[in-house]
Amino acid sequence: MLAIKINNPEIENQFSKYLKGKKQSMEEVVAEAIKYFVESKEKEDVLKYTKKNPMIHLQKIEYKDDGENLDDVRPYAHVEDSALYIHNLRRERF
Fold first, then answer.
1. Rounded to an integer, what is the distance from CA 30 to the centroid of its chain?
2. Per-residue b/e over 51-88, b at no fewer than 16 CB within 10 Å?
3. Nearest 5 degrees, angle CA 39-CA 45-CA 49?
4. With bands split at pLDDT 50, 70 and 90, how would you rate the model's confidence at 16?
5. Contacts with 29 (C-beta within 8 Å, 6 or more apart), sequence order
6. How big is the chain by its Cα radius of gyration, in Å?
7. Quick check: 16 and 25 in contact, CB under 8 A?
8. How far, in Å, CA of 44 to CA of 33, rounded?
9. Given CA atoms 16, 19, 20, 25 in this order, what sign does their dihedral have?
10. Is the pTM of this model over 0.70?
């Protein structure tokens, strides 16, 4: 059950005239209006974006090679327990 109270006499008169023209009950018209409103809001909440073709926007990144051999470089090689490492990092930041 849903109760609607209209405190504006002008809107109430317009609504009454609309009901007479539609020849429907107030409950039917209000139910249709609420359904329409909810559906329109759901459509607005959908994220709208345009898909881009990755082949058109592809960009090759080139680095200058200075000839240094970096095969033995292993970032975070000193970390034995990654969960503990991240836990400690989070504690330091706050």
1. 29
2. eeeeeeeeeeeeeeeeeeeeeeeeeeeeeeeeeeeeee
3. 125
4. confident
5. 18, 19, 22
6. 32
7. no
8. 17
9. negative
10. no
